[in-house]
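[step 3/7] inverse_fold.run input=structure_tokens len=203
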């Protein structure tokens, strides 16, 4: 499957911009229940992907996804790098294997791979608490505006959860009342992608 160059360049730029604009806020969320580096980590990863954008946009989709995933693993670091990396790498592998790629199914399998990698599940107060609800909307073929709203509301809802994984879990009950930084970056990315796709018209 060939990549639509304009689309992939637009998505890379969109993701980089939304993370750069909210990096301070993501660090602030991570200072409350972690070590304060989530915004810095995500910005470093998105910048690395951005530097590679021309090469990525010339690759077949599966290869582009896998390459972005590996770049995120290497450059985001922390706990989030391998998890976001797994999401993209697994999507790429499944796109490569599928004859007729079913986007929702591929995303679902990639999210399950993230859960296995993090030994975590829905309700643990992580980025999975955004990824699974977004996946449900994809399966329902919901409108982009609806998917974006679900992503944001799901991130907010992590405030009521007790962290069971990652650094925030060291706080136990004291993690309650704070939005999870990984869930927040995930919602920012998902809603920015939806906003971009709403306006996108293939050439
Ligand atoms: P670190 O915790 O190593 O400093 P980051 O601050 O970049 O890494 O990322 C923290 C985010 O990673 C958390 O907010 C959470 O969403 C996610 N996370 C951490 N550990 C796990 C895990 N085991 N499973 C799923 N997500 C996790
Ligand atoms: Mg951190």
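[step 3/7] decode complete -> sequence:
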């Amino acid at each position: 499957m060939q990549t639509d160059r304009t689309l992939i360049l637009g998505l890379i730029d969109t993701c980089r911009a939304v993370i750069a604009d909210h990096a301070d806020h993501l660090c602030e969320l991570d200072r409350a229940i972690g070590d304060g580096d989530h915004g810095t980590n995500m910005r470093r990863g998105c910048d690395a992907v951005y530097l590679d954008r021309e090469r990525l946009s010339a690759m077949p989709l599966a290869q582009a996804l896998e390459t972005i995933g590996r770049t995120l693993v290497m450059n985001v670091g922390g706990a989030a790098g391998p998890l976001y990396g797994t999401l993209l790498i697994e999507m790429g592998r499944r796109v490569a294997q599928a004859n007729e790629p079913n986007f929702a199914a591929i995303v679902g399998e990639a999210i399950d791979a993230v859960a296995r990698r993090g030994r975590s599940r829905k309700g643990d107060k992580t980025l999975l608490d955004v990824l699974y609800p977004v996946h449900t909307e994809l399966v329902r073929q919901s409108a982009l505006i609806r998917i974006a709203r679900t992503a944001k509301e799901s991130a907010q809802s992590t405030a009521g959860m007790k962290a069971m994984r990652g650094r925030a879990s060291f706080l136990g009950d004291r993690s309650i009342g704070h939005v999870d930084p990984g869930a927040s970056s995930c919602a920012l990315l998902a809603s920015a992608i939806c906003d971009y796709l709403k306006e996108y018209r293939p050439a």
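[step 4/7] annotate
The first helix runs from residue 5 to 33.
Residues 74 and 81 are 7 Å apart (CA to CA).
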